[in-house]
C-alpha cells in the first residue's frame, strides 16, 4: 500500500503555506491526495498534539514531514510511534527560544490572533525528546541561510541522521518543489508515479 504522508506546519503557519501547498498539488497530480493530511494546527502545543495523534491513529504508519516547529512535533511523534520523518529546517528545543516573544501573535495566513503564554512554553518543553534513537528513520534538510533558526542547532542535534545541508536558502526552504522526488522516494511512493515528473514548476 502507498504510504500516507502527514505534513506538520510550523508556528503561525497553515495548510496554505508555500511548502504545504506545493506538496498538496504534487500529491493531487499523482492521484494520491487521499494519502495526504495537512492539518491546520491549533496554536497551543497540547491541542495541536491531540490533532496530530488522532491523524497518526487514522493513517496508521504515516511518513511525517515537519517544517520548523512542525519538525519538533514530528520528532516527538516519530520517537513515540516509531515513524519515519523528514524534517525541514526543524526547530530544536523551541521552548528555550521564546524569551521576549510572549504576548500577542498573529497567524501569517489566517490572520488569527492569539496570546503566547508561559503555558505554551511549558507544553513545548513536555515534548522534548533525546536525539533520535533510530536515526535511519530520519532525513533532515537544512539551509544555512535560515533567518529564523540557526541551522547548526539542528545539525548538532540530528548529527547521527542523514543530513542534507544546502548553502544559502531561507527558513521557508528554497527549492522544496524540486526536491519532492527525494521526499517521495523516502516515503516509499512507487517511483513509476513520479519519476518522469518535473515538480519544480509548482509555485
Task: Pick out its properties.
203 residues; alpha/beta; Rossmann fold; 6-stranded parallel β-sheet; two-stranded antiparallel ribbon; 7 helices; globular
Description of the molecule:
- The protein is α/β, with parallel strands linked by helices and 203 residues long.
- The chain has a single domain (5-201), classed as Alpha/Beta hydrolase fold, catalytic domain (Rossmann fold, 3-Layer(aba) Sandwich), CATH 3.40.50.
- The chain has helices at residues 18-29, 45-59, 69-81, 118-125, 151-157, 180-187, 191-194, and strands at residues 5-8, 36-37, 63-67, 85-88, 103-106, 113-116, 138-143, 162-166.
- The strands form two sheets. The chain has a six-stranded parallel beta sheet with strand order 2-1-3-4-7-8, sandwiched between helices. Strands 5-6 form a two-stranded antiparallel ribbon.
- The longest helix has 15 residues, at 45-59.
- The mean pLDDT is 95.
